[in-house]
């Protein structure tokens, strides 16, 4: 019987909670690899808290307007989970020596904006990468072939149902006609980076509404003039 052991071990737990508004699902995901670790709380597919082991702290990722529960002691729990995860990883390697490493390149890379593009109005570019294993991917941004760092961010890897991962990188930018942006994705399963390009069109401000109003005003004036003419003619 053939068996596969992943380099990344995941410990998953799911709890169905009841509130006054109905059911919601809370998932806790803890995982480790040779060089990285992850501990995430997910509420209905939205990350509400995750660990930053490099900065040695937990990160509350809820928006400012939301109710923020207490995550006291959660980071210490995440550290303990990493110790257990790495012990399990070591035992798995001992039990199955020389097992092949699983490498899957991203199955999809998409680049798009969060808002309709208007020249000179701030917007956000999204680079959505999915279907890769193991995590993470490395995402960099270029503007007109020059690397951009300011205004960039990237989410923690999220597990898909098939065991692969998804990550999303963002770039805040102000559209200017002629600018070309590139999202460059690197992964251990790729022989060369994947690049997706977004070009800002040299579009002038849309004049449609102004023209429409102008035509409407002209038609209205002509209608009034015709009405006055028919009224005077009828009195003669």
CATH superfamily grouping of the largest domain: Immunoglobulins
Strand content: 35-45%
Overall tally of domains: 2
Average the pLDDT over all residues and give the rounded result: 79
Measure the end-to-end span.
106 Å
Provide the gyration radius in Å.
27 Å
Strands, count: 14
CATH topology (fold) name of the largest domain? Immunoglobulin-like
Q: Give the class-level CATH name of the largest domain.
A: Mainly Beta
What is the SS-derived class? alpha+beta
Q: What is the count of helical runs?
A: 2
Order of helices and strands: EEEEEHEEEEEEEEEH
CATH architecture of the largest domain: Sandwich
Low-pLDDT residue intervals, each spanning 5 or more residues:
1-18, 204-222
What would you call the shape?
globular
Give a quick account of the main beta sheet: strands, pairing sense, barrel closure.
5 strands, antiparallel
- The largest beta-sheet arranges its strands as 1-2-3-4-5
GO biological process, one term: antigen processing and presentation of peptide or polysaccharide antigen via MHC class II
Keywords: Adaptive immunity, Disulfide bond, Glycoprotein, Immunity, Immunoglobulin domain, Membrane, MHC II, Signal, Transmembrane, Transmembrane helix
Subcellular location: Membrane
Pfam families: C1-set (PF07654), MHC_II_alpha (PF00993)
């Amino acid at each position: 019987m053939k068996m596969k052991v992943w380099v990344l071990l995941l410990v998953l737990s799911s709890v169905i909670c009841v509130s006054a508004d109905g059911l919601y699902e809370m998932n806790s995901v803890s995982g480790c690899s040779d060089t990285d670790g992850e501990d995430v709380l997910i509420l209905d597919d939205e990350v509400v808290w995750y660990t930053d082991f490099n900065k040695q702290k937990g990160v509350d990722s809820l928006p400012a307007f939301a109710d923020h529960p207490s995550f006291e002691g959660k980071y210490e729990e995440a550290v303990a989970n990493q110790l257990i995860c790495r012990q399990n990883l070591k035992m798995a390697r001992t039990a199955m020596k020389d097992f092949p490493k699983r490498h899957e390149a991203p199955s999809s890379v998409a680049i798009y904006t969060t808002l309709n593009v208007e020249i000179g109005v701030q917007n956000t570019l999204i680079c959505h990468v999915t279907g890769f294993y193991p995590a993470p991917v490395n995402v960099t941004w270029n503007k007109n072939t020059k690397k951009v760092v300011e205004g960039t961010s990237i989410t923690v890897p999220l597990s898909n149902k098939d065991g692969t991962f998804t990550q999303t990188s963002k770039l805040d930018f102000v559209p200017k006609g002629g600018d070309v942006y590139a999202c460059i994705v690197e992964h251990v399963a790729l022989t060369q980076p994947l690049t997706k390009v977004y070009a800002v069109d040299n579009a002038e401000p849309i004049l449609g509404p102004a023209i429409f109003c102008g035509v409407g005003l002209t038609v209205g004036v002509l209608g009034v003039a015709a009405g006055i003419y028919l009224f005077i003619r009828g009195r003669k």
